[in-house]
Write a structure and sequence with these properties.
This protein is an alpha/beta fold. Helix content is 39%, strand content 23%. The strands form 2 sheets. The protein has an 8-stranded mixed beta sheet with strand order 5-4-3-2-1-12-13-14, with helices on both faces. Strands 8-7-6-9-11-10 form a 6-stranded mixed beta sheet, sandwiched between helices. Helix 2 packs parallel to helix 12. The two termini are 27 Å apart. 47% of the residues are buried.
């Protein structure tokens, strides 16, 4: 099969545990772009947090794309043009805030380049470390957020969050898209948003069929794009639910799993780059 696009999750997929890209994987992705393959970064993170990775891979030079907020934004790196955007309403934000307060969970959203949090908490602090965005904790979250937002995240310990996901699913389905991106992040977005839908949107814009797309990920929010792509790949460190639906399981994020996929399925092992 001749593939024309490779879509990559960031954390625990493209990025190593220390948040860097290995030398071999970086060289591989540069070479594959020189060969004319489109590289797309698809993450639950805000666009602001993905841009440094896009710059490191020279996506602007080669005409790559960013899919941020789990698919709610599609950005063309060359001219920063926004190709797609979807939000959730203020009323939906207020409802999620009430639900989170009833279950003693934290909640956060994004306005501009800032994280807006209901209360100080260790999970939002992790988001700050990952994204580099500043945190604002208003006196009254409900009054502060008066507009549509790209997404809302409810935060709590992983075990409690899985319980909330199960309890809220009957209430949320057919209203919002809900997914766990990290064990302590339960994300809510416009119902038309998920990574799978957005890689197909981008593919249609570029004249690339689903069968010509490779998607690689490790977590629950990657399932839709792995299922949508012609070749869906799970990282060796992926959760079992992702491995079960993938066409192929590659090496983990500490051992150049992304580069391995390029070598095997795009270059068909004709050659490989060293670090």
């Amino acid at each position: 099969m001749s593939y024309k696009m490779i879509v990559l999750d960031l954390d625990d997929t493209l990025l190593k545990n220390d948040g860097t890209i290995s030398g071999k994987t970086k060289k591989t992705l540069k070479k594959v772009q020189e060969d004319g393959i489109k590289v797309v970064l698809a993450s639950g993170s805000p666009t602001f947090a993905i841009e440094p990775v896009a710059n490191a891979l020279e996506l602007e030079k080669y005409g790559g794309y960013i899919i941020s907020y789990n698919g709610a934004r599609i950005i063309e790196c060359r001219d920063k043009k926004e190709l797609y955007a979807a939000n959730i309403t203020r009323e939906e934000v207020q409802k999620l805030y009430q639900m989170s307060q009833e279950k003693d969970a934290y909640i956060q959203t994004y306005i501009g380049d800032n994280i807006i949090a209901s209360q100080p908490n260790k999970f939002t602090d992790i988001e700050k470390q990952i994204t580099g965005m500043e945190i604002i904790v208003p006196n009254d979250f409900s009054s502060y957020v008066q507009q549509e937002v790209v997404k809302v995240i409810v935060l709590q310990e992983p075990e409690k969050l899985k319980e909330l996901e199960k309890k809220w699913k009957p209430l949320i389905q057919n209203k919002l898209y809900m997914t766990i991106s990290k064990p302590f992040f339960l994300e809510f977005m416009n119902l038309e948003v998920d990574k799978g839908k957005s890689i197909l949107r981008l593919g249609k814009t570029l004249g690339i069929d689903a069968e010509e797309i490779i998607a690689i990920g490790d977590s629950y929010n990657d399932i839709t794009m792995i299922q949508a792509a012609g070749l869906g790949v799970a990282m060796g460190n992926a959760v079992e639910a992702v491995k079960e639906i993938a066409n192929y399981v590659t090496e983990d994020n500490e051992h150049d799993g992304v580069a391995t996929v390029v070598e095997k399925f795009i270059w068909e092992e004709d050659f490989a780059l060293t670090a």
